[in-house]
Prior knowledge:
Number of helices: 10
Mean pLDDT: 86
Helix content: 25-40%
Strand order of the largest sheet: 4-11-7-9
Low-confidence stretches: none
Shape: globular
Distance between the termini: 24 Å
Structural class: alpha+beta
Amino acid sequence: MVFSKIDIRNGAIGVVPEAHGSLAFSAEYPIYDVRSPGHLLPAYMRLLCRTEVFRSQVEALVVGHSGRKRVAPELFEALTIPVPSLAEQERIVRAEEGALKRIAELRSRSESGLSEAVQEITRFLGLSAPETAPINFPFVVDSGRLGSWAVPAAVSAAIGMPIILTSDYPIRPLGDLAAVTYGLQKSPANRPGPHARPYLRVANVQDGYFDLTEIKKIEVPPESLEPFLLQEGDVLLCEGNSAELVGRPAMWAGQIPGCVHQNHVLRVRVNQDVLLPEYLLAYMQTAPSRNHFRRRAKKTTNLATINSTDVRELAVPVLPLNEQKKLADMWAAAQAQVQGSRSSIREQEAQLNRRLEEMISDGVT
């Protein structure tokens, strides 16, 4: 078992799986062998670390000044924990595994519905964009042949395959059909005051939906409000995300009146005379759109970033508005089904956590 002295209060504690083999940690990460005394199963200890009672005990151990708060190993070692019999620990672990399997099956069925909808949208649009397999050895490409400094672009140049989107409909860059803008940059000067407004952060913009559990506020003088005020139908995406999720959008439906957005959240406001935001949301789920952002993204450790130019240069098939609506309705139906599944998954996860708490506390003899 390993924990971070600084971040254990935020849940930075866990049991290293056997599949990881031997790992090394700095002195900031105390290490404990929970198996050798013979009283604890590592899998049970992993569950115990997640319980509210255990985490509240750990929170009470934090000492130090702001920015230097830590949990000292000797205080952590003095904690008392529930230790059921090994047989009872095994039962608790198996109960969790069974519940997680059911949740995973529900999530898989939900995701398959989305996948089928994306495939149908792709067929309807007649989309085609070459997929290039990675080259698994060093290779050289003349820089003059690169459209952008990215591995996919280099692979395409090396094998002589241009990355060009084709469709059964005319294709135009998104910048011709929509305005792409950044939001407000947070600073000490705009701490919440008399003109505080709710604003969306990166954490609020998820893959196809918004997590509005925690909404913070930012000061926006009335004379500066208009350029940053969100409208129903605005399509939002994060400037930075994982390589898998970069460029994934969500559409604002006016959930919070008078809401603005942070500068790391890009806003796309379409010209609805030629492009429906609901259709754009659906199209941006397809492989050509996803690959566009993956190719353009600047990658660092655990983060891929795009900019407004990358968004404006997204190639979009433009079809009649009535046909755009068909695809938008198809995607909305798939999303509605998924939202129901997500609610069920969240409830099952909450029930599992409550059940684990009960089993761990009741299992002590």
